[in-house]
Amino acid sequence: MKFITDYNKTAIKYEGRDISYREMIEGAKSYGEHLEIEREDRVIIFMENRPELLYAFLAVWDRKGACVCLDEGFDAKELEYYLRDADARYIFTSNKNLETTREAIAATGVKLKVLVVDELNEGEKRLEAEELWLEHPDREAVALMLYTSGTTGDPKGVMLTYDNILANLEGLEPYKMYEKTDVVLAILPMHHIFPLLGSGIVPLFKGGTVVFLKEMSKAAIGECLQKNGITMIIGVPRLYEMFHRGIMEKIEGNRVAKILFKVCERAGSLNFSKKIFKKVHEGFGGRIKFFVSGGSKLEPQIAKDFLTLGLEVIEGYGMTETAPMISFTPRGQVVPGSAGIVLPGTELKIGEDGEILSRGRHIMKGYFNKPEATAETVVDGWIHTGDLGELRDGKLYVTGRKKEMIVLSTGKNINPLEIEASILKKSNLIQEIAVTEYNNLLTAVIYPNFQAMKDEGITNIRETLKWGAIDEYNNEAPTYRKILGVEVVGEELPKTKLGKVRRFMLKDFLDGMKREEVEVEEPDFEEYRVLADYLKKVKSRGVVPGAHLELDLGLDSLELVELLSFLEHTFKIPVAENLLLEHSTVESLAEYLAANRKEITYEEINWREILTKTKGGELPTPLIRGGLVKFLTWLPLKYYVDLRLKGIENIPDKPCILAGNHQSFLDGFMLNSILPPHVRGETYYMAINIHFEGRIKRFAAENGNIILVNLNKNIKESLQKAAEILQSGGNLVIFPEGARTRDGRIGEFKKTFAILARELEVPVVTFGIRGAYDLMPYGSRVPKRGPVDIEFFEETLCGERSTEDFNREVRDRIKEWLEKK
């Protein structure tokens, strides 16, 4: 039966070549001449995206064989498994992959004939007009075998019949999704069924044109869109995230565009939006009918914003085993967050445990040579997808992956996708995020958006994300869904080629991040050696050239201040905090120093000079005195808190630092209420600015005894203000954890208080708070009633001890006291 005929037009565009349907059909027929195969004989295709991949594919089908498409990125060791398992007779490959192919064949000993497409003469078979067509395999014959791998076990060969594929084609037919006039951009690797059919086989079946790109850069994609009149792009969410980010940044930067965007959002008319945002459409070539997104779920807000721009992003749902569609979105029916309607001729139901089940002609024949795995997946004709979903208003919503659900020790089920979507909505500083259980904590693994960090002048990436995006999410989340661990990483998360996070690899990924770096060849110039030696001493660990100063070496905000001071004194160059934005790795910073330094003089960090050399700007002028705060909070504290106080007499009548653990929102108010009047009026509090966002909180901070510390700029100025307060006779309250505890346990202490105590020779009065977390845990709006213990210990001096030792001693003292209860 005819599958593809001569449409007398261009079938494929590649590297400036326009390949006609005649040329493509003749090329496929020529390839077929090299195949001596019978019905369902398997032929492997192992090459990069290029026209010859489609020639090979169509040649196998024309000869009634079954195509086995493999990832062209496999190395020889990986390829060995597939050569053994597929039991194929031929392999089509390219010069690029030829050495890998030969190495794998030699290792396995399989009898397999290699056909190198760069050496085949694709035009040697000339056809008459009536012969210009290609056949498809028999309906019930296995036509395609693609491999799918789960979280465990060996990859499985999914056997799809031509009828499985035809069920999808026939289901789409009434909706005219593909048309003869279509020009489809093929940018995803064709060993996946979604791009293989969606951007390769189906467009050719319908008489459209396929455009291959050799280079996948943003510039190359943009040029291709302009030159080729692309009508449809088959992509993954990351592609549309890139498009979306570029467009929205321009809109946000233009006041008129922002207003027009809001108008279009309210209007909800595609045609109106297309006229208003005509330039956006012209940027995509001016002929786009719609985008198609698959492989993983697209963030609903992105789909919604594209609708506002007059562009539809079509989403669907399926898997390799369903050839591939179970549901899809017809044109004009986009609902952001939905995977569309069930494909005609397909059955779908939601199991008792929420799993998506499907039945119909689209269900695979089975896994190749794996009957047990097939029986586990397809039960009574129903395929168990392993995904969770809901049907609402006739549309499918995929809510998570059954195997990826996190079951906490409390028995609560956590859907990581929902949490990830919530966090992403709150920050543009996150490129990728995955929620998992790590070290018995619900943990967010974050790969930052470094460009956004740079644009916003953020030097303290880890703390900004932890106290910003994650905290904002935690404020709204129920207790059992709060993120208690945050891991910020310097490289992309492990993913499939279609951009889906491999969650089962996250633990090993994080463990690998925490292991010592392997030895690498280090640059041989003096600036690098001096900088690396300094960092090795500070962090007591090895340093490699590509290490990120914060994410890999773990430099905190104080250590970054120390680093800048070291650079200024050692290399005799003026430095600003934004230097570390431009040069965030050891090697990059060393190269900057080599190009700009005047001389090299070895000096120790002088914190006393840093703290006292320059005034830290104007000190807060409190309109809201401690006495007024005490008056306003006296009655609520009296009602909720049974305060048990001990050691108040240990606060001296001289400047001191009060350093203690931070358990709740109540802590500062409780301290203010118990301090003697003559101490209260001269006591200031250090706090991170992120925790004082909002008009009321900001007013209270700016007009109260509070020094706000910005983690990303002017940290040195904040420390200088703190020093000035102590030197002028005031007291300073510091919570060294930086923020209140998220889980009731005492956190790590920053050594700010220890540096101030040592360099200014002021005493530290350590205090402990116990019970406040039980009354008002993080995220609570209203406290419960109950007892709280606050105890002040005898003052201590840092003396000659290192700041690290003194910091550790103070924390251990509080920790020991907390554990006595």
TrEMBL record:
Domain Carrier, first and last residues per copy: 521-597
Alphabetized UniProt keyword annotations: Ligase, Phosphopantetheine, Phosphoprotein
Recorded superkingdom: Bacteria
GO annotations of cellular component type: membrane
Alphabetized InterPro entries for the sequence: ACP-like_sf, AMP-bd_C_sf, AMP-binding_CS, AMP-dep_synth/lig_dom, ANL_N_sf, PKS_PP-bd, Plipid/glycerol_acylTrfase, PP-bd_ACP
CDD domains: LPLAT_AGPAT-like
A molecular function GO annotation: acyltransferase activity
Catalytic activity: a long-chain fatty acid + ATP + CoA = a long-chain fatty acyl-CoA + AMP + diphosphate
Xref: PANTHER family: AMP-DEPENDENT SYNTHETASE_LIGASE DOMAIN-CONTAINING PROTEIN, LONG-CHAIN-FATTY-ACID--COA LIGASE
Name of the featured protein: Long-chain-fatty-acid--CoA ligase
